[in-house]
Amino acid sequence: MVTIKTDSKRDLLIHIGIIVCLSAIIILSFFFLYLPWQTHHGESITVPDLKGMKVEQLGSFLEEHDLRYEVQDSDYVSNLPPLSVKDQYPKAGSKVKQDRKIYVTIIAKNPPMVPMPNLVDFSLRSAQTTLQSFGLELGQTIYKPDLCQNCVLGQQLNGQDIKPQTRIPKGTKIDLVVGDGAGNQEMDVPDLIGKTLEEAKAVISGSGLVMGSIVPSPESDKPAGTVVKQNPASVAGNKVRMGEIVDLWIAGSEIPAQVQPPSNQ
Asked: What is the pTM (predicted TM-score) of this model?
């Protein structure tokens, strides 16, 4: 133990001054010499650009730059290579201290499964936006005659209808069946007189029209099941639009069994 002898008040003050000076030197040395040396005060490292780099390369590459990394998240992007860096924090070009940890987001190897939304009756633009929000892509746009232009009439995957809520991989391309608005165009009324009922039904359906009432006409001398009258009539200048109803009168006293409404019994 160090013993300090003081023979006078002056000696005591001198010793106290020495102790205060030594304490100040120690404290200042700690804050201005040791601490800056330990924390590399005033030194900085420029963060390199890691985007697109494979995960297996990160460790050795960042070690050369006196940095570390940690995978913070993963995401799937169909057009980017899997197990590569999608994003990073801090961003490339930032100034950081030595041994700083860089947080990275990695491209997932396998796409997650997402539910198929119901896009029927959406506009084409709204359907495309909805697909993107689910992480899906628009495939082919298949136009079909319909009064509603650019209205989604159906949704398909690989040529088959796909039901809402079906689980499919993120990034899947969905084909949409869309109305072309051609139903607004006028057409001549098809001539159905003399055709059999089945032939008339085929013409009506193929023209984008709708079958209306079927009325028996027992007074006609035409073969049973033959169309003897129609409404609207097929006369010069008479026009119809897609989706309009066509009523038929057929020879005979009753409607053929194959076109009668089903029995409730």
From this structure: 0.47
